Records
---
Amino acid sequence: MAAEESEHTQLIHRWLAGEVVNNHVGIKVVGGPSNGRTKIMKLGPGGTPPAQFRTSGGRAGSDWHLYQAVRSTDVPVGWIYSHIGIAPTPTD
């Protein structure tokens, strides 16, 4: 691989820095098992991220966790995802 970063790597770095590129942006995740990670999200109409997303607990367990988009002035993109709890387990 060339000494220069690939276009793909440069794109990822831009998203992680909070830059909106091709209507996608990296949004910081706060709380829960995904605390400190960044979620790359496609923005909807008006430049807003999806209201919620869920993710598995990964190494923390098999539970699914819910995160909600919250306005934040502490990050360049203006949004974070905050942990709101464990998703209810579907019953059959």
---
Amino acid sequence: MRSRILRIVRATIVTSAAATTVLTSVGCGGVGPGVEGLVDLAPPGSDALRLVYLGTGGWIIERGDDQILAAPLFSNPGLLRTGLWKISADTVEIDRWMSGYDVADASVILSGHAHYDHLMDVPRVAKRHAPRARILGSRTVANTLGSWAGLQDRIDTVERDMLGDQETVGRWLRYGDVRIMPLRSAHAAHFDGVALYHGTRERPLEEEPRYATEWLDGPTLAFLVDFLDDDGAVAFRVYYQDAVVAPPYGQAPDA
């Protein structure tokens, strides 16, 4: 999974009065009714959007000099260890896989919630591989990283009044020629209606969490990401959600 790379070499562009939206989908089965034509394999233009899949919920999303990361995870503790023993970031694996990509100038790392499989590797990635990147996440994300991670001055905390939803335009946060709107979302149950490791963290941790149960999810976010042209117009719009949830949670406004 970690080595699979998804590249968008040319996207179908749906233009509206306000924005251009990139839609990508992966499916299986036969070709649906009314689908025909050839795949365009021409090289991408200079302003193409490139997506690199890192495994789990992890992505590199870039256009030109603008680059962001989302939930990078390379550590992979087994099911038994996750349930019973201590877990920690596997720095050897993180460096092995992350060193294959140049993210030194990445502007931000998105963290939709604070479960270990979305946040545990972020400190290593932020310090060693993406030293200029801000970290965008909830108050629980900020408090889970606390003081032990040494990233206090690099975290942009999303508060409740900043969130958008299908009826509300939230606050745009600017990172170079990228603007990001955090969206109100939720985390689906893991089994039998129960969401594991659920809760919020009200105070910053002084020590790294050692068990999966200590990586509480906190408020779950989705993100609307706009890559902007020089004139401020939206060139590409990307919707990112790193937790399964039923609508209307995670849906974006017409903005």
---
Amino acid sequence: MAAIAPERPERPGRAPESAATVILAGGHEGGSAAGAVHTGRPLAEAVRAALAASPEPVCVVPMTLGRDPGLIADCARALRWLSREEGPGRLVLAPPFATVDHLTAWLRTAALKAVREAPDTSAVLVTAPAAGPFEDADLFRVARLVRQYGHHRWVEVAFDGGDPDPAEGAERCRRLGAGHISLVRAAFAPPAELPAGVLDTGPLLSDAAIAQVVRARAQEALHRLAHGQDGVAEGLDAEHGHGYAHSHGPGGDHDHDHADADPDHTHAHADGHGHGESHRRAHGRDHGHPHGHSPH
């Protein structure tokens, strides 16, 4: 399976950390483009297959770029359920692939490259697949930080399948006076359609950089597992503090957390927005000033 790969740390021979099977789990940020499986039944099946195939620990890495804390919580719920079928030490949840600070730093680097030749007449159009209102609002915040600390003239936001869509975002850039528009991805996957006259700058991270970050997250998870920490408790808390104080909007004041839900279970709300094992109630945010980060 594409989402499963052996992972070995830099110092082999330490038995508790000697090897693991790594599974990537993806959400609305297009993690499937990086080989990730969706939460719910696909993740549960991938974990069970890995457990059956090897006595090594199974490490799940949430492939979020910092705007999908619900993915982290869904992974934690799945591992909590699946751990009932296994002994201790077999399952571990890695830290998320990236935080919002990582995303901001990577976007700043990409934006600088995009406008290098004509900074005074170039606009950056940051795009990602549409998600929920809070996740989408996060991207506007990130784009503002990219503009503020990168000294770009124009940094606009568009959502694949959302509002504004990439074509509308490009038109806004033109009306603001941009002569050149570069699309920078805030996701693993490219947009479904590239607007006319817009340059796609390509993947935010190379395959090698993604692999490097995944290795670092898996190694950190295995180190924690060797000290009795499986990461599940932290993952269950990933959504804390997001949304309307955890409500479901007007008329949606029911309260249930799915902490013990079967990972194979999925359901949808009346608004047609489907969820895996959780309602998407993302977390609060880090401090506002972005710092530069290496890929790991």
